[in-house]
Design brief:
2 domains, four-stranded antiparallel β-sheet, Rieske_2Fe-2S, dioxygenase activity, Rieske Iron-sulfur Protein, KshA-like_C, monooxygenase activity, alpha+beta, 7 helices
Length: about 375
Amino acid sequence: MSDTAKSDVRSLDHGTTPLRYARGWHCLGLASTFADGKPHAIHGFGTKLVVWQDSTGKLNVLDGYCRHMGGDLTQGEIKGDNIACPFHDWRWGGDGKCKEIPYARRVPLRARTRRYETAVVNGQLLMWNDPEGSAADHDILPPELPEVLTDKYTPWSWHIKEINGSHCRELIDNVADMAHFYYVHFAFPTSFRNIFEGHTATQFMESKGRPDKSEGGYSGEDSTLKSEATYFGPAYMINWLEVDYKGFVTEVILINCHIPTGPDSFTLQYGISVRKPEGLDEKTVNYIAERYTESFGDGFLQDVAIWENKVAVQNPLLCEEDGPVYQLRRWYEQFYTDVAEIKPEMTDRFEFEVDTTRANEFWHAEVAENLANR
């Protein structure tokens, strides 16, 4: 190949993995899973965390390794309101201070470990992470969904999936990615727009199912979908979904959240709750909820298959219909930047609507050909 030809070839820039973890609120899972009187281990932020509930009902999160001799606190016991190390019984409080050493006359003045501030929102435990060590910003917590934990909605169907080989930014790119809904989730996106502002990034989408596909996701020619999905900070998304199946409308709420575990790995968690349709018996309601849980769960697994096999691309080659990928990444960069270094283009309001006309003309023709060839 000549030097001229080489210069015309687009190279993939894999970039460099951030050396820090995002500033903001991260969901560790359903709060009820930590309220059993036992210590729980959560892998995240390049370490192990210990989570436990004290006698007041408060959920506490500390670094999982004892500052004495490195014992694994997740293998210890809850004694009183403290977590006791299994190695030498040093007892740590939820404020990060060592409260007692049973065999010692006194506790060293500097016996402190790293603690993480917590909050419970929508029945889920959230913790604040900040490499700069700032106090948690409770003003930017995700909003409460007041009816979700009532009998108007089904209980959370909660799922956990370990992802290896991808940085968690791969999830965020989906916010601006219109075309993948056709190829990965088997739907026609008929309307697609984004708004990024402050600490939130929102995707508005309407779609119809593909009649040539029936293997989960958003497929199915008899269904239409209205979706509003907002990231509140770097790691917690609420997706409000309205599904119309032959005139029968169902409201679904999907939580998509993640915990970074390493430079190229994260724990994906997602929860689904379905508004119970009125006038139906409990058995039918449960059946509908299970079906939608399976459907949107399958949709998540379709994305996972992509993430686990793709490579990171710092310089994606885009066409007009690919949406505001670079603007979305600038928005996301604010969470990996010192607060004093955040630039206006990371947080200023930005709106963009993708013209789906050309894409749908081609896609409908392709689907018609697929059906004809059956």
